[in-house]
C-alpha cells in the first residue's frame, strides 16, 4: 500500500499548485488526499471483488461531492489522473476490468 500512497495524483497536483496553477488549493488537495487514503484503506480490507467495487463506488461518489461543493475543480486531466489511479490501485488488489472503473458511478467529473 505504501507504494500506492506515493502514486496518488495529489502529489502531482501539489507540484502544479506550487508552480502557480490556481485550480488547486491546499484545501482541495487535503480533501482529495483524505478520499484517496480512505479508498486505499478500504481496498486493503477488501476480501472479495464486490468489496473492491464498493470502494471504487465510495471514492468516486466522494469525488463527485467534492467537485460539486468546490466549484468543479476536476477537469479532463484530473479526471484521467483520478480514474487511472483508482483503477490501478484496484488492479493491485486483484480487480480485473477493462475500461474506466469510475464511469458507472461518476456524475460530475
Question: Which features characterize this protein?
Answer:
single chain; 109 residues; mainly alpha; 5 helices; 66% helix; globular
Give the number of DSSP strands: 0
Element-by-element helix/strand order: HHHHH
Mean pLDDT: 95
Largest sheet: none
The N- to C-terminal Cα distance equals 26 Å
Query: Over the alpha carbons, how many angstroms does the gyration radius reach?
Result: 13 Å
Percentage of β-strand residues: under 5%
Number of helices: 5
Outline the fold blueprint.
Layout: H1 2-5, H2 9-18, H3 26-45, H4 49-69, H5 76-92
Protein model, in words:
The protein is mainly α and 109 residues long. Helices cover 66% and strands 0% of the residues. The protein contains five helices and no strands. It is globular. It starts with a helix and ends in a 17-residue tail after the last helix. The mean pLDDT is 95.
Summed up:
The protein is an all-alpha fold. Helix content is 66%, strand content 0%. It is globular.
Amino acid at each position: 500500500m505504501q507504494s500506492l500512497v506515493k502514486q496518488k495524483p495529489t502529489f502531482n497536483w501539489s507540484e502544479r499548485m506550487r508552480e502557480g496553477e490556481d485550480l488547486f488549493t491546499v484545501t482541495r488537495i487535503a480533501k482529495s488526499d483524505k478520499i484517496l487514503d480512505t479508498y486505499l484503506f478500504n481496498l486493503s480490507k477488501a476480501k472479495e471483488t464486490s468489496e473492491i467495487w464498493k470502494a471504487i463506488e465510495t471514492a468516486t461518489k466522494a469525488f463527485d461531492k467534492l467537485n460539486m461543493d468546490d466549484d468543479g475543480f476536476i477537469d479532463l486531466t484530473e479526471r484521467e489522473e483520478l480514474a487511472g489511479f483508482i483503477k490501478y490501485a484496484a488492479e493491485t488488489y486483484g480487480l480485473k476490468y477493462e475500461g474506466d472503473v469510475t464511469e458507472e458511478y461518476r456524475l460530475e467529473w
